[in-house]
Design goal:
The chain is an alpha+beta fold. The protein has helices at residues 15-19, 44-53, and strands at 2-5, 24-26, 32-34, 59-62. The chain has two helices and four strands.
Length: 64
């Protein structure tokens, strides 16, 4: 599973980085910077929570 961000939909609320700091950081403008590698199994639950909490639904989880 991989975490993806739709840059067009994202408005830099930063909630994803707060809920999944192990995998998502923020750039100088507050937009998410996502690790493009396969998500470790122990972070899947947190990633699902972060995707569900995204106010613009810009954060997505994609099966490998």
């Amino acid at each position: 599973m991989r975490v993806r961000v739709n840059p067009i939909d994202c408005t830099a609320h930063g909630l994803c980085a707060e809920l999944l700091p192990e995998w998502i950081s923020r750039d100088e403008w507050g937009y998410p910077v996502v690790d493009s590698q396969t998500l470790p199994a122990q972070l899947v639950k947190s990633a699902k929570r972060a995707a569900a909490a995204c106010p613009t639904l810009a954060l997505r989880l994609q099966q490998d």
